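I'll show one example:
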Amino acid sequence: MSQATAKTESTKPYIIASTSPSRYPRGWFCIGADYEFTDQPMMLNYFGTSLVAYRGEDSKKVHVLDAYCPHMGANLADGCVKGDSVICPFHEWSWGADGFCNDIPYAKKIPEKARIRSWDCMEANELVYLWHDPDGGPPIEEQKIPDIEQASEDGWTPWYIRRVPVENNCRELIDNMADKAHFGPVHGSSNIVHFSNISEGHVYTQLMNADSAMGFMESNATYYGPGFMLHHATNSGNAENPPRRYMSLVMNVPTSMDSFEFLAGFKERIPVGMEGSIEAQMEYMKTIAEGAEERGVFADMRIWQNKVTINNPILCDGDGPVTKLRQWYDQFLVPIDQVPESLKERKVYDKS
């Protein structure tokens, strides 16, 4: 090949390969704070369908069922709760937490096929989680969300949760863990003195130390599966800001193959003078969430809303381990028996 031909080939416009995953990921997904779920049915539109979530009057546990009543199609989220059952608003068919119809007021016999899906869910860290497996498998014991002591200890505000719809595949959000170069332009972080990723089984951690508008930041962000990330951070403070210690959540639940609900959570040390008022604490946390619009966790959304899925990104030597992160995430997009054994090994990618 001549030099002229080689130059022509190298200057051809790069073709972006853009395809989304063909199935929803497997794992635990955080669907909100525990106080959001009461004996009033709550509608959740996830995984291409509608679900109903409620807290049983008897068990006090959160239950999640398919929302559409198979009798005549009403949405159970428009009904009410009695005991541990949810009652259809259309004809008052009663559906138990196990998904079986347990009463029809005007029928002598309940049809044998009167059953809807009951979803596995769990509570930990003052949050509620939903298990999803496209192959119908039960929750994997070693992937259970751990109880994180700091999330439930005294002296912290309740979680403040904000939900935002995003029109893109949820995989786009995960790239942030390895995307070292975006923290300056998007979040205002500068002088990143340490940046590393750690992969081990279903857990993926990002460690970062950098300058920020609130002083020097030490950050530890960990995904427990594909849908729930808990972030611990401290800021040293500066002339304009006091030292700060906080936790935040970055969560996604697919609503379709090309959209997801982005849930951001915030928890701070209770400010002096607010110890006895949950209302004051939540109002304070609302201001914290609003402060995340410009440079915080919500700053990414203007990118997500308009970006294209790119399967073959052109990466440079200053980028983080994007390819390694995607290999980790791919384990949630294949049947469990196709997950490579090598992903169980601890791997450290230091891009400092």
Remarks:
- The mean pLDDT is 93.
- DSSP finds seven helices and 19 strands in the chain.
- Residues 149-350 form a domain with the Naphthalene 1,2-dioxygenase Alpha Subunit; Chain A, domain 1 fold (CATH 3.90.380.10).
- Residues 278-291 form the longest helix (14 residues).
